[in-house]
Amino acid sequence: DKLGDQLFMPTHHYQKDEVAQFADIMGDSLELARICKENTKAKYFVFNGVHFMAETADILTHDNQNIYLPDLSAGCSMADMANIDQALYGYEVLTQRLGDNILPLTYVNSTAAIKKFVGENGGSCVTSGNADSVIEWALDQDKRILFLPDQHLGRNTAYKLGIKLDEMAVWDPIQKVLDYDGNEDDIRIILWKGHCSVHEKFYPIHIEQARKKDPDVNIIVHPECQFDIVQMADYAGSTKYIIDKIKNAPKGSNWVIGTEMNLVNRLKATYTDITINSLN
User: Fold this and answer.
1) Once rounded to an integer, what is the mean pLDDT over residues 135-144?
2) What total number of domains does the chain contain?
3) 106 pLDDT tier (thresholds 50, 70, 90)
4) 4: left (phi > 0), else alpha (psi -120 to 50), else beta?
5) 49 and 102, same structural domain?
6) Torsion angle (degrees, nearest 10) of CA 57, 60, 63, 68
7) d(CA 135, CA 188)
8) What contacts 246, CB < 8 A, 6 or more positions away?
9) CATH number for the domain that contains residue 32
10) Which domain holds residue 127?
11) Quick check: pTM over 0.85?
12) pLDDT of residue 191
């Protein structure tokens, strides 16, 4: 109340209700950072999210504006799976092995240092909403792609664009090995061995059980889920895509959602004229 418009509190969709109740706006990570950029009245932004999200907002806002993260140790396990030293080493090894035509792309769920590395090497940042168009743009450069740090988003998007699974390799930054059995000349996408700890918790058995319970159920998942899950689901898309799909769902329809539980529970409480459950 004391600060008025000078204080702005963007809050990520995955936050618990006890935090969400204080939000000035709810949204996805990059969406919130862009909203912060447009807000010229606020001097103080309390970003209720994880480290890379606040970092992105700090990059986009003006120098006279300050971003505060309530818990500096709030991290994203996926972003933590690719640090800059690992990226520089991996890029150097892969370039020596496969040639200097590797174009790096990074999911926005990554550190500022990784984003800088990607930009300096001609690449781009990707969201789950624009992954199709950015990867398509990268493929048009006639270069191999190194996709950090989420292998599942990279694999699911590339497959949808017509890249075969046997044209994808996986770089393991811990073991420092390239996991690929075929002819290396055939590699079109190198996937960084990283994942989202939330979205890896969904398995084929969960989809099988949901369909057994109701053959007409609509199953919608995030593309950070494993390949088999995305293939078995009826729909796959970004958080915004999931929210919009539920918002526009026919009354009385039955939905099972494969994404973060706080968001699923909030959708369930909001759209009471349809049936909503978590996939796990």
Assistant:
1) 93
2) 3
3) very high
4) left
5) no
6) 0
7) 11
8) 220, 255, 257, 267, 271, 274, 276
9) 3.40.50.10800
10) 79-192
11) yes
12) 98
